[in-house]
Design goal:
By secondary structure, this protein is of the alpha/beta class. The protein is 47% helix and 12% strand. It has a single domain, classed as P-loop containing nucleotide triphosphate hydrolases (Rossmann fold, 3-Layer(aba) Sandwich). A 5-stranded parallel β-sheet has the order 2-3-4-1-5, with helices on both faces. The longest helix is centred in the C-terminal third of the chain and has 17 residues. Bound molecules: adenosine-5'-diphosphate (ADP) and magnesium ion (MG). Adenosine-5'-diphosphate (ADP) binds next to α5.
Length: 233
């Protein structure tokens, strides 16, 4: 029986194991008594750090739409110099990336962030879908929704994904308005994506938001087939 066999086996002594390990290491030319040293730290680029925060699907995304690459170039060119002379971002234009489901809107948005980081632009950025935003701002104990909204409103670069896709109410309209209005006032670059045809956006997000978006964003209209269903497109 297995249990009996296990229990009758002579217990292994940790000391004996350590001796064997020591012999193996010595045979391989490694001194087992040498203190452990950390491997030399490899420089971690901002892009590598950002990749850890980017959802796996978009971790290799490249912004290849001409209007998106033009935006990246403008932001990188006009950024305020920060420590070490690396350009940072301050005020700048925003993009409204619109198109049907699966046409690559989220891909372009994360691709744009990756391109900025690859161009050594110092960048603090946040990304959220509107559905997640509303969920995170619902009042609950021990959480200050005002603070969360304030920090998204102030973040130098924000991806606001899928505007108009979540169920709307007066409450969501007010939150969207406050967020967009703050970013509009401060002229902070924002990458907004939406499934809605532009003409219908106003009816969904309200006139105050639609009007600000019209002024603050360049429109990027994506078309073609749903890439999820036709990956070769
Ligand atoms: N330019 C592109 N090159 C390669 N793959 C892409 C490109 N655009 C989108 N995809 C892929 O197509 C799928 C749908 O893209 P996504 O950005 O999620 O669409 P949307 O946000 O418009 O619904 C994803 O798997 C994405 O990785
Ligand atoms: Mg998307």
């Amino acid at each position: 029986m297995t249990t009996a066999a296990t229990s009758t086996r002579e217990p292994q002594r940790a000391g004996a194991l350590a001796d064997r390990l020591g012999t193996i290491l010595t045979d391989r030319g490694i001194d087992p008594t040498a203190p452990l040293t950390e491997p030399p730290a490899e420089p971690v680029t901002a892009l590598e750090l950002a990749d850890a925060r980017i959802p796996a699907r978009y971790r290799r995304a490249l912004a290849d739409h001409p209007k998106v690459t033009a935006w990246v170039e403008e932001i990188a060119r006009t950024g305020r110099k920060g420590p070490g002379e690396a350009p940072g971002i301050s005020e700048g234009p925003s993009l409204l990336i619109a198109g049907p489901t699966g046409t690559g809107k989220t891909h372009q948005a994360y691709g744009a962030v990756r391109s900025l980081l690859a161009a050594n632009v110092r960048l603090r950025w946040e990304a959220t879908t509107t559905a997640d935003l509303y969920a995170s701002l619902r009042p609950r104990q021990g959480h200050d929704p005002e603070r969360a909204l304030w920090s998204l409103g102030r973040c130098p670069l924000l991806i606001l994904d899928d505007l108009g896709a979540a169920k709307t109410s007066e409450w969501t309209e007010e939150l969207t308005y406050r967020l967009i209005n703050r970013r509009y006032n401060e002229m902070l670059p924002t990458l907004v994506t939406t499934n809605m045809p532009i003409a219908e956006l106003r009816g969904t997000v309200g006139d105050r938001v639609a009007s600000r978006l019209a002024e603050m964003t360049t429109r990027v209209i994506l078309g073609g087939a749903d890439r999820r269903r036709h990956p070769a497109c």
